[in-house]
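hey all, quick one before standup. I had two proteins in the batch that finished overnight and I want to keep them in one place so we stop losing track of which output belongs to which input. First protein below, input sequence then structure tokens straight from the run.
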Amino acid sequence: MADNNTDEGRQDTAIENAPAASIRILKNGPAVIRGNFTITGAEGEPLSLDRPIASICRCGSSKKKPFCDGSHIKSGFTD
């Protein structure tokens, strides 16, 4: 684990102390994950997160998949 006196250490501590994960599906928008979780890429590699929250694309238009970049607004995505 990183030294808690660094930015990285504070981020690691924040993630470790986060509550269990919860997922909220936003109407016509992304799935928002909060808490203590890991996102793994297609090749099995963990994706780097700097805080205990992530917005996951549901519309398929994001240029930052699997993360939401707001493209659902321009694409007119509805759920």
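OK second protein, same deal, sequence then tokens:
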Amino acid sequence: MEKKFLYKHLIILFVFLFSLKLNAQIINGADLLFSENLNLISGKKIGVVCNHTSLLSDGTHLVDALLNQKNVSVKAIFTPEHGFKGSAEAGELIDYKKNLYKKVPIISLYGKDRKPSKENLKDIDVLIFDIQDVGARFYTYISTMYYVLESAGENNIPVIILDHPNPIGGNYVDGPVLDPNYKSFVGIAEIPITHGMTIGELAKYFIGEKIISTWKNVSLNVIQCKNWKREIPNQFYSNWNSPSPNINSLETALVYPGTCLIEGTNLSEGRGTQYPFLQFGAPFLKSDEVIAKLKLLKIDGIELNPVAFIPENIDGMATNPKFESKKCAGIKIKIIDPVKFEPVKFGVKLLFVLHKLYRNKIKFNDSFDKLAGSYELRNQIKNKIEPEEIFAGWQKELLKFNKKRNQYLLY
């Protein structure tokens, strides 16, 4: 009887402790820079690559926290796509000219230049990179990091990455690996659409695999997060900051690696509404017909509902969206189980169904191949190749990538 009683209470204790582990507050690299690693920047002249997501746990912006340090001098602020405040639209080129933040010059890395110049770095001892990524190859913050690392190597400047969790999960790796002939700012390296890595791990990968031309000269220090585990379900990721105007929720980030492919077509990806990437459509779609066909392809983890929407100009989110002021029939996604949902596969299944139903009305634009990473996916969709066969074609390159990737995982 006593053994049963003890066993029962041990199980309760285990469940309680596991629950505490899952709910432990995630501490990002920015907080740990100040609590445990100030020696790395003491007496240094700093360049900060950051935006509105560069926050400490108490809400203080990283630049403000650095300016409050007596023995640190902040010389420049470098910003990615969407700018310092994260409010510029996708693709909007930014030129800060002589803009300052508390007397510190702001330099755009999404204007006429995509990487820091030698002139930009002449008074800098160390570069700090602290930006929340989304976890998809075509999200340009990792391209900015790539060029920052390259420039750092060219100018012999050490780099500190203040790590963040990958918000869509640390184990989800999927999609075609980029064909190097399709390298662009929305596809900077030979990685799959979802790489399952943090920005710190990805930086180590870029250098370790010699993807960056100046890899020999890059001195990299990654300050890891605490209390983040790859296997923890996405719903436990609580310290989320929307990284850009159209990734305005964690749910949006979860579907983005799949529905972003719609941007490469004439369909609306939901820009011009409050639910970009979570809903999509066109005036010629029949929602129930598309949903019925998708359900035949066994899609787990989401609920699909018919929706009607009218894309409009939204300040800071969308200018001249597709089908502006026209009523679109479409589909809205609701995440039911983020662990079971596979967004990249969903994106392919969606395109397969849409092309099959509306072949003469679906058009691919020039950006599709850059997003997909090659011309092959477009051809497969047009040639009615079944999704499972498309997925099978990824596996060889994915296995190679995963074998290399495993060497750089920090968590």
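Flagging for whoever picks this up: The first helix runs from residue 2 to 23. Residues 246 and 274 are 8 Å apart (CA to CA).
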